[in-house]
Specification:
single chain, four-stranded parallel sheet, 8 helices, 46% helix, elongated
Length: 243
């Protein structure tokens, strides 16, 4: 099987790398025969380039590169393809789609809200802030707004998108909007994978909310989604090898 290379952004916050590694361990546990490596774009080691060079030196030929990203913004469109183009020429690399949107992510978001104290019976009286990191990419912003609209139809009182940077509204503004709508309680669901600077800003913006969920992290649904993206990408790789 092609090696799965999980590509994370990286952060100066040690919680970020720890969460990424926990997620990768969960993926390995779901498919023990699959080799899964982790590379970081910045701040943490090993770097993506370093992992690719090591794999090539071992004689690996086929790699599926999976951006650990929830939306298709600058890193997925520019940074990661640029790094992969610098890989050793003997490697055959296919980049997967980013993780979102996906029904599995909505399931993971609800899991985190229930772990924070809500129950399915609370849905109709609870407004939810879908709080993402934010982006200057209009495509990424539109995806977050669409996810919020879709999630509303699963029974929540209301769902509003919010952004920790680059775009508006901020988390605290969305919390106040849901209060004004008359929702009995307000919950904040961080649509982020790992702790760090922007997730901490989301948490501060949730000060007036009743419930703050944890980041998605190594949720079982996220681990399953990584394998779904891998499987969808590896079939063309194997077809090319057979040709």
């Amino acid at each position: 099987m092609p090696v799965l290379l999980v590509i994370a952004h990286g952060s100066r916050d040690p919680r970020h790398a720890a969460t990424v590694h926990a997620l990768v361990r969960h993926v390995r546990s779901l498919r023990p025969g699959l080799r899964v490596e982790t590379g970081f774009l910045d701040f943490n080691i090993p770097s993506v380039q370093g992992v690719l060079e090591s794999l090539a030196a071992e004689g690996v030929r086929d790699v599926v590169a999976l951006p650990l990203l929830l939306t298709r913004a600058f890193h997925a469109k520019a940074d990661i393809p640029a790094v992969l183009r610098e890989a050793p020429p003997q490697l055959r690399i296919r980049q997967t789609e980013v993780l979102g949107p996906s029904p599995l992510l909505l399931s993971a978001l609800e899991r985190r809200l229930y772990e924070a104290g809500l129950t399915p019976a609370d849905k109709s009286s609870t407004g939810v802030v879908l709080a993402s990191a934010g982006s200057t990419d209009p495509e990424a912003i539109a995806v977050i707004a669409e996810i919020a609209r879709e999630w509303r139809h699963t029974g929540w009182c209301a769902v509003r998108p919010a952004f920790a940077s680059a775009s508006l509204p901020r988390t605290e503004d969305a919390v106040r909007e849901l209060r004004a709508l008359g929702c009995e309680r307000v919950a904040v669901a961080p649509y982020v994978l790992a702790p760090g600077f922007l997730p901490d800003r989301i948490a501060r913006g949730a000060a007036e909310a009743d419930v703050l969920a944890d980041v998605l992290g190594p949720a079982p649904e996220v681990a399953r989604l990584l394998l779904e993206r891998y499987d969808a990408a590896r079939v063309p790789v194997l077809a090319a090898v057979g040709a």
